[in-house]
Design a protein that fits this description.
Strand order of the largest sheet: 1-4-5-3-2
Strand content: 15-25%
Structural class: alpha/beta
Number of strands: 5
Radius of gyration: 15 Å
Order of helices and strands: EHEEHEHEHH
Distance between the termini: 17 Å
Largest sheet: 5 strands, mixed
Shape: globular
Number of helices: 5
Length: about 130
Amino acid sequence: MKYKALCENHLFGKVYAANNRCTTKTVTVFVLADKHAGRLRKENPEKMKINRVGIVASKKLGGAVYRNRARRLIRRAMYEIEEQTPLVKGKLIVITAREYLVSGSKIKKDTDYVKCAEVRHDMEKAFRRLNLIP
């Protein structure tokens, strides 16, 4: 299922301030209940609640190539998790990439890439801890 992108800076701040997070080796997931989920459900053509998801890859990960790869991996893992088991709806979710995601170790080499399966496993673990997977 397609999710709505989280684009507003003040919403990122609210999710971070709620301090409801789970950190794994490759990602950190922050969650907050969406107060506007009812309004967004009325706007949605399927009349269902949706999650708003923000993906963050900071400059400390490296250049644009590393950051874009990290976002692609996270997005792909999110789609695979949604296909397998639906998440609880009506949440604001921020997924932050960690350094290990792009390097596999502290030294960046082209052969040290992390696989999508590992990212998906870490995200599933974080979603379960945050009660997003029923």
